[in-house]
Amino acid sequence: MKFYETIKKYENENITIYCDMDGVLAEYDIGNFDYKTIRPLMSNITKIENLMKQDNISVKILSICKTNDIINDKKVWFKKYMPFLKEEDMILISKELTKYSDYSSKEIKSNYLKENIKDKEINILIDDDNSIIKYIIKNNKDIIVFQVSSLID
What we know:
This protein is α/β, with parallel strands linked by helices. The chain has a single domain (3-122, 129-140), classed as Rossmann fold (3-Layer(aba) Sandwich). The protein is 35% helix and 20% strand. It has helices spanning 3-9, 42-52, 68-81, 105-116, 130-139, and strands at 15-19, 57-65, 90-94, 122-127, 143-147. Strands 3-2-1-4-5 form a 5-stranded parallel β-sheet, with helices on both faces.
């Protein structure tokens, strides 16, 4: 099912969208973790901002970081390019945390979603990493998953 058709289908229900950052809202630049130089994907940011204006939709950023320092850098990036986003809606998880040190990014996202989704809501994940997408589809039956290309008109 296409992304915008899904949003329309559930217009009378509460929807939480979990959106990845790198490759979805920010250009994915392999090996570059200097968020002062990473370009925002303004068309996707505008689409997310417009979705947030709908009464039944909340958007959370769900992004995995290699280090604790990257969390702070991403927060600064969000304040610059997405000032409308509340800090409590930034779910930035560091692999340096002992709880996650032995997990892959796909396992961390999957576990986070299992522990935190709201049963009475429609839960959607938007990601660019096909291995994460496949893993979430297989392991999180209560999540509707879209590849970032679904945002493109």
